[in-house]
Amino acid sequence: MRRGGGGGGGGGRGYGNYTNPCLTMHQPWASLLVYGIKRIEGRSWASPIRGRLWIHAASKVPEEDTIKAMEDFYKEIYAVNGITDLKFPEHYPVSRLLGCVEVVGCVKCEELASWEALPEGVRLEGQTDFCWLCEQPQKLLVPFEMRGYQGVYNLERKIHEAAIRGLVPVKGLSAAIAGARAAATQFNKKDQNLVSNTTTNSYSNSTSSGRPDSKSLEEDKMLESCSFGGSGEEASVPSKTEQLNPIQVEESSSRSQTREDLKQIPGASAKIFAAAVRGLKQS
Fold it and tell me: Where is the composition biased (Polar residues) (predicted)?
C-alpha cells in the first residue's frame, strides 16, 4: 500500500497541509541521506512534498553487516564516476531527528534513467518506482531524541523550533552534492519546459476562440500534479488514526529492491545487497 502522509506538500505550491514535514527512515539510510551520500530516496509512492524534509532515524538498531553492505554499495556507485574519497558517518544513531534535506522533485525511475546529463552513480541509486530528488543536506549538531510515525508527518512545533537552530551544512561532499544538483537541474529544466509548452498551447487555443479552451485549462491542472509528483498519481492519504500509530516504517529504496533487481545494477555485488536485506528482517 502506498502512503503519502497527509496528502500535501510542506514546501509550498499548495500541495497540502504540511508545515514542517518529516520522514522516518531505517538506519543506515537515514544518516546516509542527511550526510549527502544518498542523493535519491526511493519509495513506492510519489513524494507528497517539495521543499525541506526533516529526516528521523527509526528505532531499529542497524546490524554491522547492513552498515558495511550499504557503505560498500555507495563506494561502488561513486567509483563509477571516479569518486573514491567518501567519508561515512562515524555513528548511526536511532530514534533521533538527524537533520534535513531539500526535496526538489520526484520522478519515476524510468525517467531518471533517461537523463543523459546525470552522473551514472546517481542513476544507479534510482531503482524504485519513485525517486525523490534530494539536495542541500544539513545535519543537527546534536540529534534530538523523538518518536517517529508512518509516512510523512509534521514535526511538533517545539521540536522544530529547537532543531532549526541546531542545523549545520554538510561539508566535504562536494562531488556527492554536485551529483544531486545535476539531478535537481535536470528536473527543473523538465518542469520549466512543461510549463512553457502548456502556457503557449493554452494561449494559442484561447486567442483562436476568443475564450480559454476548457481542455487547456484541464491540462494546466494535470501539469501541476505531474510535474510535482512525477507520475500524475496522487499519494494516498492516511487517516488521522493511521498517522498516529507507532512507527511501522515504509521500506527505504534499498530495502524495497528484490534480489533480481539488484543483480541488474552494473558493478554491484549481489552478495552486498543480500547482506543488507537480511539485516533488515525483523527478528
Answer: 238-256
Q: What is residue 63's DSSP assignment?
A: P
**Crossing angle of helices 174-209 and 214-229, rounded to 10°:** 170
Q: Are 125 and 182 in contact (CB under 8 A)?
A: no
CB 37 within 8 A of CB 232: no
Per this entry, what is the length of the chain? 283
DSSP readout, 204-247? HHHHHHTS--HHHHHHHHHHHHHHHHSSSPPPP---HHHHTSPP
E-assigned strand segments in 35-165: 40-43, 51-57, 96-108, 130-145, 152-154
Nearest to 187 by CA among 139, 233, 131, 234: 131
Cβ neighbors of 244 (< 8 A, separation 6 or more) are 149
Q: Could you tell me which of 173, 167, 149, 5 has the C-alpha nearest to residue 74?
A: 173
* Amino acid, single-letter form, for residue 245: N
CATH domain 21-189+238-280 topology: 2.30.130
pLDDT tens per residue across span 58-78: 999 999 999 999 999 999 999
Residues 263 and 270: beta-carbon distance below 8 Å: yes
**CB hemisphere CA count around 261 (13 angstroms):** 15
CB 51 within 8 A of CB 102: yes
Question: Any idea which residue has 521543499 for its cell?
Answer: 51
* Cell numbers placing 225: 500534479
**Residue 255 has which C-alpha cell?**
530495502
pLDDT 10s digits, 127-185: 899 999 999 999 999 999 999 999 999 999 999 999 999 999 987 665 555 555 666 66
| Alpha-carbon gap, residue 111 to 130, rounded angstroms | 10
